[in-house]
Write a structure and sequence with these properties.
By secondary structure, this protein is of the alpha/beta class. The chain contains twelve helices and nine strands. The chain has helices spanning about 20-30, 45-55, 55-70, 70-75, 80-85, 95-105, 140-145, 165-170, 175-180, 200-225, 250-265, 275-285, and strands spanning about 5-10, 35-40, 120-125, 130-135, 155-160, 160-165, 180-190, 230-235, 320. Helix 1 runs parallel beside helix 11 and helix 6 (about 95-105) crosses helix 7. The longest helix has 24 residues, at about 200-225.
């Protein structure tokens, strides 16, 4: 890409809302956008790894095909025995073997250092809470670590660390990208916590909504903090959405609408707008909620931060690069 310095593609976490990043990637690739490196957290690490391994329309089409066949049971398989163990000493609800099989079957490379574009997955150190940047080693293990939602999936041992979901420390790894030398960041969010008419239902829904509220404030703070260090461009997300982040029934709609809205944003000069991303996004016509059943705007409210589409913070202090060493 043009300009001085490095351009980073930064992919945020967000559960099933990660489908919107597939549509965004398709539109960006159609317009010739190609970053110098990729960094992602949680589901953003999944999408980022797929893209970094095949950063072209054919690779994005393969990623899209995976998303379009994805069902909740593939990612969150509920088994009675596991639920009973969770009431005792178990530290997680779901077995990650389904997600591991999916990643092993479809990712086009085995080691992070083998990707076409440099790929950096962000996870969180279970003991210290510090963000850990994984840049070398088994890609499946790195992505699983970045997606290890506390209490939902077990921690992942990576080298000498026990790692959990990158969203805990760094849902949108802006700080990581700046630390890796990026002077221009293209941020692909998912969606953000919005006001609810009633509390979320169930343990799972409550836990994920609480994390939503945390990461919503993360992006707001980090985009402001790092605006003086790099040009931060945010692709407008869909917000508000009422479907929960663990609902995969609207994936196709999310992908297609994200592709359409990102094309409109690009055509309106989105990548050339040097204003603060939140303000530019507020005035762009691309911030469109998907008009489908539960994806309709939640009571036509803005997001929890009082912005048209809420952004998040970056990594906590103590962001660390990590090299793979066998345990």
């Amino acid at each position: 890409m043009g300009g001085v310095g490095k351009t980073a593609l930064v992919l945020a976490g967000g559960g099933s809302y990660g489908a919107v990043q597939v549509g965004m990637l398709r539109a960006l690739c159609e317009n010739g956008v190609r970053p110098d490196f990729v960094t992602g957290s949680s589901v953003g690490a999944i999408n980022g790894a797929f893209y970094a391994g095949a950063p072209d329309l054919a690779g994005i089409a393969r990623l899209e095909a995976v998303w379009r066949t994805l069902r909740r049971r593939d990612v969150f398989p509920i088994r009675l025995a596991q639920l009973l163990r969770a009431l005792g000493s178990a530290d997680h609800l779901f077995d990650p073997r389904g997600l591991r099989r999916l990643l092993t079957a479809h990712l086009p490379f085995r080691l992070l250092e083998q990707s076409v574009l440099p790929m950096h997955a962000v996870a969180t150190d279970l003991l210290t809470g510090a963000a850990v940047c994984l840049s070398a080693g088994p890609v499946v293990e790195a992505v699983l670590a970045s997606c290890a939602i506390p209490g939902i999936y077990p921690p992942v041992r990576y080298g000498d660390r026990q790692l959990i979901d990158g969203a805990v420390a760094c849902n949108t790894p802006i700080r990581t990208a700046v630390g890796l030398g990026a002077t221009r960041l293209i941020v692909l969010p998912t969606a953000f916590a919005c006001p609810h008419a009633a509390p979320p239902r169930g343990v799972f829904g409550t836990a994920l909504h609480a994390m939503d509220l945390i990461v919503t404030q993360q992006l707001v703070q980090d985009t402001a903090l790092y605006a003086t260090h790099a040009e931060v461009i945010m692709v407008p997300p869909h917000c508000p959405l009422a479907a929960p982040r663990y609902d995969f029934s609207h994936v196709e709609e999310l992908i297609d609408e994200a592709a359409r809205s990102t094309r409109r944003w690009l055509e309106s000069g989105g990548l050339r707008d040097r204003e603060r991303p939140v303000m530019a996004q507020a005035r762009s016509g691309a911030n469109v909620a998907t008009p489908a059943r539960r994806l309709l705007p939640a009571r036509e409210m803005g997001c929890g931060a009082g912005l048209p589409s809420c952004p998040d913070r970056g990594c906590l202090a103590g962001d660390q690069r990590n090299s793979w060493t066998k345990p």
